Amino acid sequence: MDVTINNIRKDFGQFPALHDVSLSVGTGELIALLGPSGSGKTTLLRLIAGLEQPTEGRIFFGGEDASHKSVQERHVGFVFQHYALFRHMTVADNIAFGLKVRPRATRPPANEIKTRVADLLDMVQLTGLEKRYPAQLSGGQRQRVALARAMAIEPSVLLLDEPFGALDAKVRKDLRRWLREFHDRTGHTTFFVTHDQDEALELADRVVVMSQGKVEQIGTADDVYDRPNSPFVFSFIGESSHVPVTLKAGEILFQGESIGLSEQGGDCDGTLFFRPQDVVLTDHSNALSGKVTASRRLAGTRIAEIDISGSGEAHHIEIEVPLEATVVVGGDLSFRPTSWKIFRDAA
Amino acid sequence: MNHPAIDHSRQDPPKIPFEPLIERNAAISEPTWVRWSLIFVALLFLTLFLLLPLVSVFTEALRNGLGPYFAAIVEHDAIASIKLTLIAAAIAVPLNLLLGVSAAWAITKFEFRGKSLLISLIDLPFSISPVISGLVYVLLFGANSYLGPILKGWGIEILFAVPGIVLATVFVTFPFVARELIPLMQEQGTGDEEAALSLGANGWQTFWYVTLPNIKWGLLYGVLLCNARAMGEFGAVSVVSGHIRGLTETMPLHVEVLYNEYNFVAAFAVSTLLALLALVTLALKTILEIRYGEQLSASRKH
Fold this sequence. Notes:
The complex is a heterodimer.
Chain A (H helix, E strand, L loop, with lengths): L2 E10 L2 E11 L4 E5 L6 H9 L6 E6 L2 E2 L5 H4 L1 E4 L11 H10 L9 H14 L15 H14 L4 E5 L7 H18 L2 E6 L2 H7 L2 E6 L2 E6 L1 H6 L4 H6 L4 E8 L2 E4 L2 E6 L5 E7 L4 E3 L6 E10 L4 E6 L8 E6 L10 E6 L3 E4 L3
Parallel strand pairs in A: 3-8, 3-9, 6-7, 7-8
Antiparallel strand pairs in A: 1-2, 1-4, 4-5, 9-10, 11-12, 11-14, 12-13, 14-20, 15-19, 16-17, 16-19, 17-18
Helix pairs in contact in A: 3-4, 3-5, 4-5
Chain B lengths: L7 H4 L20 H30 L4 H9 L1 H34 L5 H13 L2 H12 L5 H7 L8 H12 L1 H14 L2 H8 L4 H30 L2 H7 L9 H10 L3 H29 L10
Helix pairs in contact in B: 2-14, 3-14, 4-8, 4-9, 4-11, 6-8, 6-12, 8-11, 8-12, 9-11, 10-11, 11-14, 13-14
């Protein structure tokens, strides 16, 4: 089912949690809501579920206005961050819950519920654990029980709140791959909330980058990494360095001196962003240069920390240098970004 | 090449000196004589203030043998007081169970204005003297009040009758269930309920299948304390009772009357029933705490 969100605003008392969020998602898409804590990503997820009501704006499920529908009516599968499994019920009873609470007219007969539960357990690869209680399961198993429970009601949309948040690193990786396969197999429109950019970029068809209650950018992993459209996205996704610059007659100036880069457009102040690996060392004076303050060897690369402040306030940036280059701490180093983006200051 | 044999003995872990099972930590352990004196003082206190009274209740009750003891219990007024006590508890406890669960549910699952005021109000019966609680009903329903004569005109007697006793009991025992459930439900949060709702359950199903099983032991604990207090309440009930023998006397009131009449054997005989109630309550409470301790609320003040 496709989901359309139109100009949603949500206030908690005086505090605006979301403002003017719009989003359009096609059937079967896997969407990551990515942002730092407090960015409103979980609030957006809960609004889609109907666990919160928007202050303003509308939510459409498949063309139908669901804005004022209750959680039950929206028929979404919601997997909670800490799973919220019913601790006094067995795995089988947890999964069957959504079917057992249906009114008599639409409730499947007991034996059908039983086969459905068995099928779902098979789908999440937990066959044989139906008699266990949640306390007797590992984190990853609980996660999958929660997913099976949400899937039991044949939801129109699947919503996952920090699905890997409470798991250790190894299980996270495995479960990430598993979830992608699961999604491809079942084809549900899926939203998941995460603050882990690796998770979002690897798993999602499209990533919704959020900050302070606003959507910063919506796009594929390539879009948000290679073509970030705001300083926030550039610095939030991946490693980056930034330098305050001035544009003058198509030249980019740092502290009044040309650094050998040019950019179209009128004269103004701005900030130059680039990735640490997108630089080339040069002995040209027409470049960024400074004193090396530290040098670290990472697996396949070397990172140099350079103070490019010159006479001004200390400004440390990190760049990747070739392993064969000689980097002397305390020595001078000049470099020039090969790929960069300038965000102009608002006039 | 001749490899030298590996000398395993060299890799033996260093010998750890024998450690006593209970390590004495110099920072927190006192000299032996201090510890024993503290234990002695505590035991002496318990014996003097708890055990001796309990024993004396039973010895006084049985002073003239089993015959007078049972005669005092099955005597007409005693039976009437037992009945009235059971009636008051049978109404007050289920009522407070319902009210307590509703109050705890409202406070922990919803956000609304005046929440902290409501929490303070729930505590009110604990913070004021039971005599005052009784007096409030006298003021509300007495002969000089506004409500009393009207109700009397309809043939409804509140004061110096069973309804007054029940009302006073309900008021005094109201906080037990709510007080037990609020911290417990606050700790459990609303996650499970939201999960149930998202799976299509309605409010009632959510409460019945999800909330209630999560709080059942805490609820039982609260009901137990509520019941003990309902049966043992003296002050508030005494004010509204009017002390009509065989009609408006609960067991604690009956004990007082008998005692004031120097009928010590009968007074203590009825007291043994209340003492037994206390002992049973204590035993059940302890069992609950041991078996389901982590499912009861952490803050248990009453």
